[in-house]
User: Fold this.
Amino acid sequence: MDTTSNNDQPGNALPLLLTPMTIRGVTLKNRIVVSPMCQYASDDGSPVDWHLVHLGKMAIGGAGIVFGEETAVEARGRKTYQCAGLWSDHQIAAYRRVTDFIKTHGAVPAIQLGHSGRKGSCHGAIRDWAALTDEDAASGYAPWVNIKPSTLPNEPLWPKTKEMDHDDIRVVLANWRDSILRAVDAGFQILEIHGAHGFLIHQFLSPITNHRTDGYGGSREGRMRFAVEVATMARAAWPKELPLFFRVSAVDGKGGAWNLDDTVALSHALKQVGVDVIDCSSGGIPGHSDMPIVRRIPGYQVPFADRIKREVGIATMAVGLITQAAQAETILRDGRADLIALGRELIWNPNWPVHAAKELIGEKAYELLPVKYAHRLIRRDVVGRLPINKTGGPSTPEDDALTEKT
Assistant:
């Protein structure tokens, strides 16, 4: 994988957070990433005005990569009826509207493709993902049958689920490929496979949810097979000049079984089939072992990115309560990750990238913003430094003219 940056040149004082980075044929203007965040606002899988504004304001705010939310590769792979999807050609044009806008502002549009597996057919986050029932059908939200790697002892009877046979696996892999081809047509320049958070790929990986006895279960290699097949197929379908990311749950979560050693082994396998970046998250499959909870403290998932980067020799993305410019810069300077992803912090402040840049490099930070914004902020700062007269206004007629133009 080609990963280069202008910070490799001696004497370059630009903070790493703001240093361009090239992955394959795509150059990022900085290392700041808008992490995928589900919005539960899609119309039959397609983005709407909400998505254009939600993602567009973060592109305007200066991020290098702007990820859309987890996007289902088939309708039954959604969590809710309001989730994003790319299972039909009719959805492409709506995504193209969003990706074109993101590119206009110098950011790279990215898509995360996934499948909910057994964690679908439910209401959204505000209703705590309660399972859809037959009563919901009257409102147009009929439950559907979820697919899963294997049947578990004492699992709930609702929502309805089906254990995947080999035909199901082939169908899902084909649907993944078709969605990837649509993502190309939709204008995305980075693809991420969602293999985390207890969704379908993670369900295959963890022995808690994978009790299969065929070639997709049993040993760690068998449980990794589906994930590696998805990544192999993705690398073949996705243009070779465009980067491929893979999101992992580095550990299952409290009481889980899949651990960081397993994730290191998976990352080695993913690197071999052409994955460029490991996006390091955690959690999603609880169990009853002595695996501790991952405490949500600042930078709590950075150690995962650090170890995978060092032991596998692959670029990593750190995410999880990274909120301060100096904190992000230190992670990169210490070589613990290559990219910094933010989620909720960007909901609170979509201009976080330019605010972080202002803290690190001063007024040159305004270059991250569109010119129509930047020039007003520069003029504001200039006027703010001028001496003032007794009335509180600018001190000369020339200053008055400057103020009128801002």
